[in-house]
Amino acid sequence: MKHFAKKAVLAMLLLCVCLGPVLGDVNTMEVSAASQVQKGWVTKGSKKYYYGEDGKYKTGWYTVKNKSYFFNSKGVLQPKKTKPISKKLVKAMDKAIKKLKITADTDEKTALKLLFDYVSEFGYMRYQFTGAKGWEYDCAETMLTQKQGSCFHYAAAFAFLAKRVTGYPVRVGWGEARLFKGSNWQQHAWAEIEIGGTWYLFDPIGAHNVNHPNGISTPIRPNSLDWYMQKRTKMVGARKYYKSAKYVNVEI
User: What is d(CA 68, CA 227) in angstroms, rounded to the nearest whole number?
Assistant: First the structure.
């Protein structure tokens, strides 16, 4: 029995010695794989990609520092579409995103609600809209740095933040709306985001006036959620709340 026990102990020791390096290799492989998550610029042959903090390559428009780059559906950089963008705007966007504690791990819809509520709290300021080229960049920068603006500023600021965080197709719409007086159509702007193949409308100034009774006036739909992520087909049309819509895509 003693002889058998000694053999059993020796066998166990040999098993541990043999398995030790194997288990060690498995752990090393896991650590190595985790450390190989690609981030930032990556070149593969003649093609360039940009990987985010989540290790996924970017598609569509994405801003790095003070330049906006366009990547096709496979993540390949399209250099001819590259263009500079205001450092001040990029800094203001990233400051707001950091303040709201939005990271690569934040669910997109959670992030959109945080951004919507954030912009809705800004102050109102009258503005004469001219439609000059690039107005959406100027309005977004003004709103995010001065924290006040018109409906055009509200829409642009939210749209740019939403694009920066989610990468979804985003556009700013403008035309006419009967937001505050049911029978009167007024010049107005809003944001739209395509999610899962459907366009949704977001109008932060509507929520602003719900939350701030001293705003322009009370909107005809008194719940702030009535202006958050509503299907475009439900909101835009001659007999609905918005009409004569024109659009500019957010390209950052």
Answer: 29
Q: Look up residue 7 and give its two tokens.
A: 């053999």
Amino acid at 52: G
List per-residue pLDDT tens for the chain, 252 residues long.
445 455 554 555 444 444 444 444 444 444 344 456 789 999 999 999 999 988 999 999 999 988 999 999 999 999 999 999 999 999 999 999 999 999 989 999 999 999 999 999 998 888 888 889 999 999 999 999 999 999 999 999 999 999 999 999 999 999 998 877 666 788 899 999 999 999 999 999 888 776 554 555 556 665 667 889 999 999 998 788 899 999 999 998
pTM of structure: 0.79
Determine the residue type at 105.
D
The residues that bridge with 58 in the sheet, in sequence order, are none
Q: Tokens representing 195?
A: 């999610």
Contacts of 224 (CB under 8 A, 6+ apart): 120, 206, 207, 210, 211
> Helix (H) and strand (E) counts for the chain?
7, 12
Residues 6+ apart with CB under 8 A from 252: 61, 62, 63, 68, 85, 160, 163, 164
* Best CA proximity match to 142, nearest among 125, 162, 118: 125
Query: Which residue shows structure tokens 């794989």?
Result: 33
Q: How far apart are CA 53 and CA 40, in angstroms?
A: 8
Residue type, 48: K
**Tokens read off for 70:** 């366009």
Which residue matches tokens 């985790």? Answer: 34
